[in-house]
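USER:
Class, as today's exercise, take the chain set out below, and explain how the chain folds.
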Amino acid sequence: MKKISITALILLLVSIFSLAACSNSSSGENASESKSGETEGKGNTTLRFATWDSGEELKIQQEIAKRFEEKNPGVKVQVEAYGDGFDQKLAASFGAKNPPDVMYMWNFPAYYESLEPLDEYIEGDAVMDMDDFYQGLFNYSSMNGKVYGMPAGFTTRVVYYNKDLFDAANIPYPKDGWTWGEFKKIAQKLSDPSKKQYGFGVVPEPDTYDLQGLVWSNGGRFISEDGQKIKGYMNSPETIESIQLLSDLIKDKSAVLVGGQNQQSGDDIFKAGKIAMWESGIWPLEGFKEAGINVGTVEVPSFGDKPAKGVIASSAISVAKDSKNKDLAYEFVKFYSSAEAIKMRTADLPVRISVVKELNMEQDPLLSPFYKMLERSDDTPAFLLNSNWNEINRNLSAAVNAIMLGQDAEKLLDKAGQDSEKYIK
């Protein structure tokens, strides 16, 4: 699963490369481009599938492709591994009117006009059970009321905690349903600046995408739900309080800034036992286990009686509007979304309710908080609500970064909102 960063939304949709230079073979190496629908031999049809995965994850994609070929004689699935150049290569292929038939997708505002809406396919498919998917995921793969991608993988965000540090301080482990007030008391008890040990870690330049969960939990928003208003949202008392909370943790030395320039990452400092709690997605979990950390996970805290909400980092699988084989491409999307294929993708958290129940993942103490947060992750992120969000976010990010350094949250968010009003259509 590709980790979403709001800064990555500034797409490199310039300098359209020659198509041959943009294509990769199923091994990930450069190869001559195949055209969608090209026949390799009598009766054989090539279906191109573009992915950003590499390493073991890429091997899983290739195995899924082989399984689809076995179920569909005469079809060859060409897996094109674009790696870190995914956005550039995908943009180039769309610009040349010869994109892959199927591709991984996350930035729907940038690409949806080049994608095929899947609604008619889904409505005409008696086998596709849409109710078996976690519905909040479709907030991230739909535009203007249409579905442009089937959920492929996701993570919500949880709080990781070091059980050994809690035990040493004789502090009970946190439980789902805890509040930010309880969190702050625990963080204070677990902080000892003389030992360079702190209760929590905060990045000096927080990704505003990730901060949305915190803001939503307090009843705030960066922008109105229709994407047309900033004033009264970005600078609302609820939004200000949410961002100020992190700054206050740093001021009273209950938290420490981590992961800045020339600094160790929060993941590494957590592994070293120097921060007791760390908020993140699913990505570092295996690394914590491999490092021998006695780790637990718990839902993010709530603001009193307000339910804790989460933001999702998600990926989906989509069909190109210019595909010559849309029906076959949808069949691949359908298979990729099946329980069989989902079980093969061990690097992703399953997106089907039935698979989660079958694998008893809701009973896994380390994984269940991710799904509890998913059930309450029903808000739509800002970048999907306004086409000028990149410009608006520059002002917001600058304000948030200054707040983390101790500057006044209210003044900074007021100014960020005022400076962003010109981008509202």
Observations:
- Residues 55-71 form the longest helix (17 residues).
- DSSP finds 17 helices and twelve strands in the chain.
- The first strand starts at residue 45 and ends at 51.
- Residues 6 and 268 are 23 Å apart (CA to CA).
